[in-house]
Design brief:
The chain is an all-alpha fold. The protein has four helices and no strands. The chain is elongated and about 115 Å long. The N and C termini lie far apart (107 Å). This is Cell division protein FtsL.
């Protein structure tokens, strides 16, 4: 009986040592993985800083102006280019081309576009 208790105690001691070693091994792996991630994060931050610096260099107003003058054939702004809204012609009514052709042939009644129907249905002051 005592031998059995000694074997159980030794087995428990060995299993607890194996369990402690496995926890230590997993912790070591997790620490290494964390260090790799920290290094990768720092490299990505450095790359982002480099890209920001390049963007600030490329986005300078004097450089953009120089490129616009060199590559775009822009003309100076003239006051006559400004148009008042009253000078813009109104849009004509939407035409139903097939319906108009049928009307010209005398095969149909005058048609309305959906916009015309909507406008006639909501005409202010109209009696129901």
């Amino acid at each position: 009986m005592i031998k059995l208790l000694h074997i159980i105690a030794i087995g428990a001691l060995v299993s607890s040592a194996v369990y402690a070693y496995s926890i230590k091994y997993e912790t070591t792996l997790a620490t290494e993985h964390l260090q790799k991630l920290k290094g990768k994060t720092q490299r990505e931050r450095d790359a982002i800083q480099v890209l920001k610096a390049e963007w600030q260099f490329l986005n300078r107003p004097d450089r953009v102006q120089m490129l616009a003058e060199r590559h775009l054939d822009l003309q100076p702004f003239v006051v006559t280019q400004v148009v008042k809204p009253s000078d813009i012609p109104n849009r004509g009514p939407k035409v139903d081309a097939i319906g108009r052709k049928l009307e010209d042939l005398g095969l149909g009644l005058p048609t309305e576009t959906p916009r015309d129907r909507k406008a006639s249905a909501t005409t202010p002051g109209a009696m129901p």
